[in-house]
Design a protein that fits this description.
The complex is a heterodimer of chains A (about 210) and B (about 250). Chain A has about 210 residues and is mostly helical. Chain A has one domain (about 30-210). In chain A, about 65% of the residues lie in helices and about 0% in strands. Chain A has a two-stranded antiparallel sheet with strand order 1-2. In chain A, strand 1 and strand 2 form a beta hairpin. The model of chain A has no long low-confidence stretch (mean pLDDT about 85). In chain B, the strands form three sheets. Chain B has a seven-stranded antiparallel sheet. In chain B, a hairpin with a 4-residue loop joins strand 5 and strand 6 (about 140-145). In chain B, helix 1 (about 5-50) crosses helix 2. Chain B is globular and about 85 Å long. The termini of chain B are far apart. The chains are: A mainly alpha (about 210), B alpha+beta (about 250). The interface between A and B is medium-sized, with 24 and 25 residues.
């Protein structure tokens, strides 16, 4: 019963929140959710909305699965997890359509594709199925945030160098273009997102050699 | 209780599915009015955009009311079978509520023609706006084309798409492309020819006059062909109406 008295923000719980942002990042360390990192990072705004949507689905999904964990028949647990994800994603989609119509149009199919985002299934299976709701919520928040900052960083880089703007506003002044500067069209294509993620992984591992596998 | 018994699994699954269905249905019902309003606003913004009036979600409804002369639905003989003007509806349906996809399907394969047309007014000029719907490369493309009061010269077009390739086909929505349509004509010697999007440049064509075509976007041939087909297939239903003299 000693566990019951564990403070809400014990060092162990804080770790759940901060680890996925850095050393156990879902994209750079666990290498999950790469596909959506390529797809929605051409512009900053959809990347932010996508990140928030994943964050919400992942945190609440983790909590729901954690509450249900003792009742879920293990033989159909993957199906149960999928139903929870799908239901949450449809809710997010409906809310976006009602309150952020323009953004929901931009994201179009990608909102639906949150269902197949492997980070979510991965965290449900690896963490929420065997932990209490509060740690599960923190784990969801942490992993969602870890996913989010990579997405935003990549989108920042791609929108700035690909179209010369951020959030749709011109950043690179016209005088640069007059001097012969051109937007890099390659940055807008999916491969460049991989290069960007790879660069982040490279920087991260060169600073923290513990992460380097043999 | 044995959690791996078949009966437990069946009961668990059934309860879960019913519960989720109830939650999703109620969310959908609760948010439906807001979503429909967004869609209507978008439609009004696009219609206003095609006569050169900028609007946003908050002003769309008022501006639309102000600039609308009438909404009509026309049949295959070019007759108005339904009119909506000054808030009064004569006939069965408002053109605004017509599902264009269904209307096109009916016109092409069932010979039931009931096509929506919008007559709008801006600074004393009358515009005839024909809504468009067609196939792009990856998904649907749509838009509006507005004709000047001579019912021949293109005043403006706007397009939208769901999933055309960014940087290539998706460029059809940009002013760079849509501005090319301005001043083009859809009739040639009183015969309907539509406006074609021409790969390789309209200047190099022998069979199409420069006034009936525009240059395509390099690398987006299939989307541009989709635009050509959409313009032709939608507008052909209106030819009889457009050729009528003003009464």
């Amino acid at each position: 019963m000693a566990e019951e008295k564990e403070p809400m923000f014990s060092p162990k719980n804080i770790k759940l929140l901060t680890n996925p942002i850095n050393v156990d990042n879902p994209i750079t360390k666990q290498v999950l959710g790469i596909c959506s990192a390529l797809a929605v990072t051409v512009k900053l705004e959809p990347a932010i909305v996508m990140s928030l949507s994943v964050l919400v689905v992942l945190s609440f999904g983790n909590v729901i699965i954690s509450f249900m964990r003792n009742g879920i028949p293990s033989r159909i647990r993957i199906i149960v997890q999928l139903v929870v994800i799908a239901a949450l994603v449809i809710l997010v989609d409906q809310v976006l359509k009602a309150f952020a119509y323009d953004v929901s149009k931009q994201l179009s199919v990608f909102v639906g594709l949150i269902i197949t985002n492997c980070i979510i299934m991965g965290r449900f299976e690896a963490f929420a199925m065997s932990n209490k709701p509060w740690p599960a919520f923190l784990d969801g928040l942490g992993n969602g945030a870890g996913y989010a900052w990579i997405l935003v960083a990549v989108a920042f880089f791609r929108e700035l160098f690909g179209t010369g703007s951020l959030m749709g506003m011109k950043i690179i002044p016209d005088s640069f273009y007059d001097l012969g500067y051109v937007n890099n069209g390659l940055v807008l294509l999916p491969p460049m997102a991989l290069f960007a993620v790879a660069t982040i992984i490279w920087i991260q591992r060169s600073r923290n050699t513990d992460l380097v596998e043999d | 209780m044995n959690k791996n018994s078949n009966s437990y699994i069946f009961i668990y699954a059934s309860v879960m599915v019913v519960l989720v269905a109830v939650i999703l249905t109620s969310a959908n019902l609760a948010l439906k009015p807001l979503q429909d309003k967004n869609k209507q606003n978008e439609k009004m913004i696009n219609l206003l955009g095609s006569i050169g009036v900028a609007a946003d979600a908050t002003t769309a409804a008022d501006l639309y009311k102000k600039h609308l002369v009438k909404e009509v639905i026309i049949n295959e003989k070019g007759e108005e079978i339904s009119t909506f003007a000054n808030g009064e509806l004569t006939g069965t349906t408002r053109a605004f509520d017509v599902n264009l996809k269904t209307a096109l399907y009916n016109a092409n394969s069932k010979n039931i023609t009931a096509m929506p047309l919008f007559v709008m007014n801006n600074n004393g000029e009358t515009f005839y706006i024909i809504p468009l719907f067609g196939k792009g490369l990856w998904g649907p493309i749509y838009g509006n084309i507005s004709l000047d009061s001579d019912k021949n010269t293109v005043a403006a077009v706007n397009f939208g798409h769901d999933s055309e390739t960014p940087g290539l086909g998706a460029e059809i929505i940009l002013p760079d492309f849509t501005n090319r349509f301005i001043g083009k004509q859809i009739f040639k010697d009183d015969k309907f020819v539509s406006v074609s999007v021409i790969k390789g440049g309209v200047a190099n064509q022998s069979d199409i006059d420069a006034i009936n075509g525009i240059d395509a976007i390099s690398g987006s041939t299939l989307t541009c062909n989709g635009v050509t087909d959409m313009l032709h297939d939608c507008m052909i239903n209106y030819v009889k109406y457009l050729k009528q003299e003003d009464k």
